[in-house]
Amino acid sequence: RRGEAHFDSAEHWSLNGKGRNLFVVLAHEIGHTLGLPHSSFKNALMSPYYKKLNKDYVLNFDDVLAIQNLYGAPPSGNLVQLPGKQFAFFQDWSPEPHEDSGMKPSYCHSIFDAITWDLKKTLYIFKGRHFWMVSLDGKISPPQTLQKRWKKLPSYIEAAVVSGLDGKFYFFKGGRCWRYKDSILEEGFPQKCSMNGLPRRPDTALYFQPLGHLVIFKGSKYYVVNEESLTVEPYYPRSLHDWKGVPANSHSVLTHPDGAIYFFKGHQYWIFDQKKLKVTTSGKWAEDLSWIGCKNDVT
Fold first, then answer.
1. How many whole angstroms separate alpha carbon 20 and alpha carbon 23?
2. What angle (nearest 5°) sits at the alpha carbon of residue 114, between those of residues 255 and 201?
3. Residue ranges of the alpha helices (H) in the chain?
4. 3-state DSSP call for residue 133?
5. Is 29 labeled as catalytic in the residue annotation?
6. Cβ count near 185 (within 10 Å)
7. Long-range contacts of 95-98 (CB under 8 A, 24+ apart)
8. Contact 128, 112 (CB under 8 A)
9. Binding-site annotation: residue ranges for Zn(2+)
């Protein structure tokens, strides 16, 4: 049954290094109970292969990033657990994730924060403190930190979108928004955009070509936004029912270069057909969408 872990007598369980370490296996199974999939990092707690961990083992970056993507980050620093000890503590810790060639990028193993294409058709995928760039021919950049590219931008953004008018990057988190021309933060930003009627903690954002506007999604509503003033246009928000078949609370959305609009929620995606004004296809993005960079890798 869900939420349960079974330990049978076929294994020799121990806490002192002889036999299978009960603490390590239990911590791994609790990770699954909390919603974590397996990790491709060999030294991660959520690796599918049993390993012996000493008492000073620190959770792998991928473990921490995956759980924070599901439940959020602690208010100060990162929570680092030490298997074998009965406590957890906070420390300033932000190592660069290491990704070997031939291994899936870490965004493939859980849920990314946001995704968007720029006007040069480079795909940007955001997760935690990092982002990846994916070219049209499928080349994936190493993970880069957000603040090295966009100064003053916080981690764990909630929505990102590139304007189809001028190529500027817009980021949203909480009630604030940031606007960058290339990597330069524009004067007057960040702004408290919620003061202009934009929703706090938006689900996702899109540049919608037929309207020539930014569209922000929040729950069962969507908002059409004037880019110049960053205010909500008259007669909005409106019901998400206008986007037939699109699920509420999608965490990401983008327009593919072929014109199709992709909505993402959890491990699923939905394609919204702009001509038919409804969802026509759905599936699992990591398995079906090769342009994201996860499909052809070995699990």
1. 9
2. 115
3. 22-33, 61-71, 146-149, 285-288
4. strand
5. yes
6. 17
7. 95/61, 96/143, 96/145, 97/61, 97/62, 97/65, 97/130, 97/143
8. no
9. 6, 28, 32, 38, 46
- The annotated binding site is made up of 6, 8, 11, 28, 32, 38, 46, 113, 115, 160, 205, 253
* CB within 8 Å of 268: residues ≥ 6 apart: 282, 283, 284, 285
Q: What Å distances lie between residue 122 and 41, 137, 234, 281, CA to CA?
A: 26, 10, 33, 24
* Nearest one of 48, 49, 46, 55 to 16, comparing CA atoms: 55
**Domain-embedded: residue 8:** no
Q: pLDDT by residue (tens digit) across 126-165?
A: 998 899 999 988 889 999 999 999 999 999 999 999 999 9
- 216 and 247 fall within a common domain: yes
Asked if 265 and 247 count as a contact pair (C-beta separation under 8 A), the reply is yes
* CB within 8 Å of 14: residues ≥ 6 apart: 20, 21, 22
Residue 266 contacts residue 247 (beta carbons within 8 Å): no
Annotated binding site for Ca(2+): 8, 11, 113, 115, 160, 205, 253
Could you tell me the residue range of the domain that residue 83 belongs to? 13-91
Structure tokens that stand for 24 in this block: 């390590």
Q: Considering the candidates 29, 99, 227, 233, report the single residue annotated as catalytic.
A: 29
Q: Which of the listed residues 40, 62, 91 is the one where a domain comes to its end?
A: 91
List the CATH number of the domain containing 29.
3.40.390.10
CB atoms within 10 A of CB 273: 15
What tokens does 278 get?
């409804």
Two tokens at 6?
């079974």
Q: Which of 91, 116, 140 is the endpoint of a domain?
A: 91
Tokens for 167?
């190529």
pLDDT in tens, 59-118: 766 777 777 778 776 655 544 444 433 333 323 333 444 444 445 667 887 788 999 999
